[in-house]
Specification:
Helices cover 35% and strands 21% of the residues. It contains 9 helices and 9 strands. Helix 8 runs antiparallel to helix 9. The termini are far apart. The structure holds S-adenosylmethionine. The site of S-adenosylmethionine has 19 residues, from helix 1.
């Protein structure tokens, strides 16, 4: 069964250790592409010297982004992660003392103690759950967490950038192309809700402070290809669980993944860009 939040699209991936490996691997890739910065340097600078700091990570997954922040902020900074499922959380005993993880659906109102209390709210890799109807309700809900002057940072894959490319332009790559088609079909209406740059944040009433495109580097293409293979394998496992009740029957998708691996090994890849949007809650910081 796919997990459905009342207001979000279903989350099509899993929550087992293989899903965690994929998220942590993806984390390493995007961190490299962001020059090892977890927060945009302007946001970091603006909050680093405050005497009280609270940061929230929405849909935190394995909480790796959040726990790494504990290395760059003083121990008095409170770091809160929220996710609809706690299955990928590390044991509480292994968390830094200032990291707190909660189970919470991002589309549902947050508890009163969190409202208006965060300097930064971070959202990363959530786009597969979004559409024209739920993007603004989600942003409105996340904004309730921000202090005046607080920042909303959203980093995600831009599905419009997906394209099949290869070292040799004559290489047949039907499987790579079908993954691209799948990515594009999953978000057919994205142009209706991200019209340009940080426009969804403007529509939500934030002062937009930055919009940046992040480009893949060629030497990281193998890592990005691995992310696709792991993602496809996760979908195949899910499909086989849903259709065969958990038997090990080889799904046709697994055969196609083998063919995808072969195309990738010959130099095919999926082109990609990510975006980072930053918005700021109106009002003076306190
Ligand atoms: C692709 S993962 C990204 C995890 C993490 N943000 C990262 O960058 O590694 C998406 C996460 O969204 C969570 N999720 C799905 N639906 C959610 C919802 N309605 N509210 C909160 N979290 C949700 C999933 O459990 C999963 O951990």
């Amino acid at each position: 069964m796919t997990e459905t939040s009342l207001d979000g699209s279903p989350y099509i991936f899993g929550h087992d250790y293989r899903s965690s490996i994929r998220l942590n691997y993806q984390h390493m890739l995007i961190k490299k592409l962001c020059d090892e910065q977890l927060l945009s340097p302007n946001v970091h600078q603006s909050i680093a010297s405050r005497s009280s700091i609270r940061i929230a990570d929405i849909a935190t997954g394995t909480a790796l982004w959040l726990t790494e922040l504990s290395d760059v902020f003083p121990a008095h900074a409170e770091l809160h992660g929220f996710d609809i499922s706690s299955n990928q959380y590390p044991p509480q005993e292994w968390l830094p003392k200032n990291v707190f993880l909660h189970e919470h659906d991002a589309f549902k109102p947050f508890a009163p103690e969190y409202l208006g209390s965060f300097d930064v709210v971070n959202l990363r890799f959530f786009i597969t759950l979004l559409n024209k109807e739920n993007i603004q309700p989600l942003l409105s809900n996340l904004i309730t967490l921000l202090k005046p002057g607080g920042f909303l940072q959203w980093l995600d894959f831009d599905p419009r950038s997906a394209g099949a490319i290869a070292i040799d332009p004559n290489l047949p790559m039907p499987r790579t192309q079908s993954v691209v088609t799948m990515i594009r079909k999953a978000q057919p209406d994205v142009n209706l809700w991200i019209l340009h740059d940080a426009e969804p944040f403007e529509a939500a009433g934030l002062d937009t402070t930055a919009y940046k495109s992040i480009h893949l580097r060629n030497y990281l293409r193998p890592v990005w290809n691995h992310c696709h293979i792991m993602g496809m394998k996760e979908l195949a496992r899910r499909l086989s669980r849903d259709t065969t009740g958990g038997s090990d029957k080889l799904s046709p998708l697994l055969q196609q993944i083998k063919e995808l691996e072969a195309e990738f090994a010959q130099g095919a890849s999926i082109d990609a860009q990510w975006f980072m949007m930053i918005g700021r809650m109106p009002g003076a910081p306190r």
